[in-house]
Amino acid sequence: MKAFAMIKIGEVDWIEKDAPTPGPYDAIVKPLAVAPCTSDIHTAFEGAIGERDKMILGHEAVGEVVEVGKEVKDFKPGDRVVVPAITPDWRSKEVQRGFPMHSNGMLAGWKFSNFKDGVFAELFHVNDADMNLAYLPEEVSLEEAVMITDMMTTGFHGAELADIGLGYSVAVIGIGPVGLMAVAGAKLRGAGKLFAVGSRPACVEAAKFYGATNIINYKEGPIDEQILELTGGEGVDVVIIAGANVDILKTAVKIVKPGGTVSNVNYYGEGDVIPIPRLDWGSGMAHKKIIGGLTPGGRVRMERLIDLVMAKRIDLSKLVTHTFDGFDNIKDALLLMKDKPKDLIKPVVII
Ligand code: NDP
Ligand code: ZN
Q1: The pTM is what?
Q2: Ligand 1: does its nearest atom lie under 6 Å from the Cβ of 200?
Q3: Which residues on neighbouring strands pair with residue 290, listed in sequence order?
C-alpha cells in the first residue's frame, strides 16, 4: 500500500509498505479524512521523539472499517468510525489507576506515528477496536469529526486538568487549534475572564468566537506584564499552555495566583530541562500546581465528545481553514502545517 512517512529526522516522503493485518481484537481501517498535527512536525522535523525509520506519519483520522479480528464484537466492515489519536491498551495496570494514556508505559497510549505506523496510509491498524473506535454519526461532517480525535480532546483536557470552576479567570497561552479548544473547554466549564494569547489573525478571530474575553498579542509585549496589568497585579486562577517553548513555564508560574493551576498540553520538542522560576513559585511554597498531560483516548472519550458536537455545544468547523481533496494531498497538508501561514488554523484532507 501507499503511505506518507518520516524517512528519518528532517525527511518525509511517500513509501510503499505491506498492508497491516488485524490481531483478534483489532481492526483495519481505511481513512476517509485525515489531518496533520503540529506533533507530526515536532516528530518528523525536530526529532522530538528520536529517530524513526520509514514510520508512517499521522494520528488524526476518521475512516471506514475494512476488516476486524475474530473477537471484535461491535464493529464490522463498512462501519464509519472516529479513531482517537490515543489508543490505549485497555488491559493494563495504568488503566486501572485511571491513566489510559500511559497504558503499558509513559505516553504509550500514543501509538500512531510514535512507535507504530500512523494513519497517513491507504489502510491502518487499530488495536482493541471495541474499546478504541466510536461510531461516526451521519450528522457529524468528516471535517468536524477529524477535529475530535486530537484537537478537541487535547484542548479540553487542558481545561479538565486545570479543574476550572465557575467564574475562574483563565489564560490560555497559544491559540492554535489545541489552544482554541482549550478556550472552548474553559468556557464550557464556566470560566469568567478568559485571556487568549496568540498573534495570527485567523486564530485571534477564532479565539473570540470560542469565548476569549481578552486577546493578548505576545509579540506586542511580555505576556506577564500584559496580563498582570489587566488583572490589577493579581494574575489568574488558571493558565493553560498550548504553545511556545520551555521558557513559557516562567511566564505561566508568574501569572498564576497562589493556589492556582498551570495546566500544560503543549508538547516540548526541545530542551533538557523545563525551568520553574524559584521566587515566582514562592520559593517552592506558593501552592501553585503544575500539571501536564497527554490527552485521554479511547471509545468512551470519543463518544462523549461526539455528543457535545451533536448537542451543538461546540462548532468545530471554525478550526478547519484549509480543505484538500484526495489522498495525494497529504504531503501538501503536512507541509502547510509546518509553514503555519497566517491564515492557517488546521488543514484537513478528505480522501
Ligand atoms: P500551533 O503551532 O498551531 O499553535 C501554537 C500557538 O502558540 C500559536 O497560537 C502561537 O502563536 C503560540 N505561540 C508560539 N510561540 C509563542 C510564544 N513565545 N508565546 C506565546 N505564544 C506563543 O500548535 P497546535 O495548536 O497545533 O498545538 C499546540 C501544542 O500542542 C503543540 O506543541 C502540539 O504538539 C501539542 N499537542 C499536544 C497533545 C497532547 O495530547 N498533550 C496532542 C496534540 C498536540 P501565533 O498566533 O503567533 O502562531
Ligand atoms: Zn496530534
Answers
A1: 0.97
A2: yes
A3: 262
